[in-house]
Amino acid sequence: MQTQAQRPTGAFIGASWAALLSGVMAYLAGLWNADMPLNEKGYYFTILMYGLFAAVSLQKCVRDRLEGTPVTGIYYSLCWVSLALSLTLLGVGLWNAQLALSEKGFYAMSFALSLFAAVAVQKNVRDLSLLPAPQPEPEQGA
């Protein structure tokens, strides 16, 4: 089954990148300013990086399957498990953290925004890579 890729609009591309950058930067700024031990900051940073990788990998697997590109069942399953594990680890970490509820909500929402935006950016990059390069218009001349 072959799907026809459509060029994403410039507005969607820009919004996707803006959401990814704002989500990741907000999360990292929160960690930078947090009053927690360095090892706890490292835990939350690692969960963010793991979650971003898992979300992008899962989106790629789903898209590959839709386009008929073979994806092994084990890798597809590992992508789902990794995404679920990153969400679970964040949830457990925030549940047990000595943070105000507003801080816990901040980390959860910036994490969710980052994952969603990473999937959107990866989709845009893939869509743009599948499209043929635009051809220059022939000159109208005398």
UniProtKB/TrEMBL annotation:
Pfam family, one: YiaAB
Coiled-coil segments on the chain, per record: none
Source species, domain of life: Bacteria
Transmembrane helix listed as a keyword: yes
Transmembrane segment boundaries: 12-30, 42-62, 74-93, 105-121
Domain YiaAB two helix: 12-64, 75-127
Protein name: YiaAB two helix domain-containing protein
GO biological process: one example: DNA damage response
Keywords from the named record: Membrane, Transmembrane, Transmembrane helix
